[in-house]
Specification:
The chain is mainly α. It has 11 helices and no strands. The longest helix is centred in the middle third of the chain and has 37 residues. The chain is globular.
């Protein structure tokens, strides 16, 4: 992230300098996403998820998501086009960027039927993006760090030290403590969302087969890039293996499970994008 405005500037000028950046628009988008997700969640819990305000909140959530990920994609690719005439890796490298993937899914959810579960992964990401921006940009802009007096005998060329900010430190501890747990929760929600779409497809809900096809492509890309998704899949597979290995399980069920695993493994190998772009599983840009 870009550094906050200089502390020598007046507060009003620092704030104006901050809000005029594209990065602040990214932050405001995530803040809007959280507000609309909360507003929709209240409607959902009171079974009013098809009211005008609920529909507005739902759609605005994904408009905000598309805007935030669109800003990141713009900064990462289009803004760099001035420095080089051709992006390396072509369309497959672009598709392997997690920000492009989430931008695409935000647009898909925006123009599809309501699936409330789809809001949660975006919301969890936004919590950490808002927290990080607040700690690294908003707080230092409003309360610039105060330099501490150098210790006696300190070298004149020594780097200055600053007093810690209690709120910034609290936010930093929150992010550090709950980030991995939250990313595991996102992985679980994305798996659950696939099964939610599968149920709709089996019930032949209008457009559901197209949705699950698109989401399967997205989830395949997530699996190749996210260690959290890989861990969640491995844990789920291990539990299923343990259940199938029970002596009371009919042999036909065991054989069917092994067949399913084999087909999924073959499909995963055949659709590994990294084989075509020559990257590793962590080669895509981290979602922001």
């Amino acid at each position: 992230m870009a550094p906050p405005p200089p502390a020598s500037m007046p507060l009003t000028e620092r704030l104006m300098h901050l809000v005029q950046t594209l990065q602040f628009a990214w932050f405001f988008g995530h803040l809007t996403l959280l507000f609309c997700a909360l507003r929709y969640g209240l409607s959902y819990m009171t079974f009013n998820f098809y009211t005008r305000w609920a529909r507005f909140s739902y759609r605005t959530t994904f408009i905000a998501a598309a805007a935030t990920y669109g800003i990141v994609v713009y900064k990462a690719y289009l803004a760099r086009a001035q420095a080089r005439s051709r992006q390396q890796g072509g369309i497959l490298a672009l598709a392997s960027d997690e920000n492009v993937q989430y931008l695409t899914m935000a647009l898909v959810w925006l123009f599809s039927r309501q699936v409330p579960l789809a809001i949660l992964p975006f919301s969890i990401y936004s919590v950490f993006h808002v927290a990080t921006y607040t700690r690294t940009n908003l707080i230092p802009t409003i309360q610039p760090p105060q330099q501490t007096a150098p210790a006696s005998g300190a070298s004149p060329s020594a780097k200055p030290t600053y007093k810690p900010n209690a709120m910034a430190d609290t936010i930093g501890k929150f992010v550090k403590q709950y980030y991995d747990l939250s990313m595991s929760a996102v992985a679980g929600l994305e798996i659950l969302l696939w099964f939610r779409l599968l149920v709709s497809a089996l019930l032949f809900v209008k457009g559901s087969w197209m949705m699950i096809a698109i989401y399967t492509i997205f989830f395949r890309a997530r699996y190749s890039q996210s260690s959290f998704v890989q861990g969640a899949i491995a844990q789920m597979t291990a539990r299923a293996d343990a259940m199938v290995a029970n002596q009371s399980t009919p042999p036909a069920v065991r054989q069917a499970w092994e067949t399913v695993k084999g087909l999924v493994r073959q499909g995963a190998d055949a659709t590994d994008v990294n084989r075509y772009v020559g990257g590793s599983g962590s080669g895509g840009k981290k979602a922001q």
